[in-house]
């Protein structure tokens, strides 16, 4: 009887992994030169996380080691194509109960389970590692990246000054930001609430330094809110400067498949309700980093720095990037989404002068940003570029939210209307409207940069920012019986050429223009 139950459960897992039974939220949208919009769901493959409430276990063998579950309480916590937004209600755990999570991967060779990680949703995340442990991790990382040759400035890099960085839901210090000499910085997480290496760059100024330069008051504490959003406050808890827009207040829609974006009343309100509002996305972030943390906490088969060679690709040089920026118009910033599209359009227009693949696209940018004669899109914004951004803003439905220009991922494909009568190219977007990292978005960005040699727009943070990715790097190492992979995208922030940085390659949006 027990054997029969095991086979039944295994079959149900396989069925879920290979069929469309779980609700799919991901959408691929393509706009043709004639303006026709084609939308298709992403069903190509699954990558599930299996969770079980703590209960008397039943062991399933033969997948990739035993999985201890209670078959009466088995739930699918996360499908890479979507996740119910009310995670706490879905799990309905009593205080003190935990869930055991494993990633169930469907490969050509069959199903495979990754190692387990235990989560208590009622427990606040807390600092685990001190500055010394984080410094060691930073030094190890910087040393290995410098050896790859992808960061010319890091010939003999040194990790020096440390700055504490907090997150509203983490007890203690959430991150240590280290300055790297001769240039750059690295942000290291102190525990499993984020990936071990949260952010880094070999050339740009550290986020805390940017906040200090912008603030006219002494800074008491710095908070990292999502991938690229930071806030500095004074001793009284008042916000004195910010880097990037603050993430919007996300309210689940009735069908549980999406969010409604609203403005926060003030900074204190965001801090107070941070965990309750972003819990599904925070847990998604923690689960995405789980494999890396298992590698950090588990003795590896070989040396700790036994990474494969770091491979990297760039879609053109940094000199080819268009350094456009936002500005305030009618009391609101014009929006990172329209700026990102304008930078990609400018890059294509410049490439069309000598790259045969894009030759037909000369004219995607025209004099004054209108429909006139062809000119090369300028490197830095001028009146014509600003006209392009304004027009794209109208097509993609950017709206004002707390003084920032916000754009829903589902409407970003509206830029196809800008191309009409200017370019024979087409627009393709992949997106998860709920803001969860989706493999089909990450893969699209990776393929565009690596294989097509073309920048792509990605989505970072909690539906916060659309930067333009134009560099990609990856490496791997073996830990126990599985492999850990690290992938990053180098992004043009759309800040006039400032603040460009390496971010984790996971994304909930991918925007491309095809020849």
Protein model, in words:
This protein is of the alpha+beta class and 515 residues long. Helix content is 24%, strand content 29%. The strands form eight sheets. Strands 1, 2, 19, 24, 25, 26, 27, 28 and 29 form a nine-stranded antiparallel β-sheet that branches. Strands 3, 6, 7, 8 and 9 form a five-stranded antiparallel β-sheet that branches. A hairpin with an 8-residue loop joins strand 27 and strand 28.
In a nutshell, what does this entry contain?
With 515 residues, this protein is α+β, with helices and mostly antiparallel strands. The protein is built from 10 helices and 29 strands.
Helix content: 10-25%
N- to C-terminal distance: 59 Å
Estimated share of beta-strand residues: 25-35%
Can you give the mean pLDDT?
80
List segments where confidence is low: pLDDT < 50 over at least 5 consecutive residues.
1-25, 41-94
* Tally of helical segments: 10
Main sheet specs? 9 strands, antiparallel
Rg from C-alpha positions? 23 Å
Strand tally:
29
Q: Helix/strand-derived class?
A: alpha+beta
Note the overall shape: globular
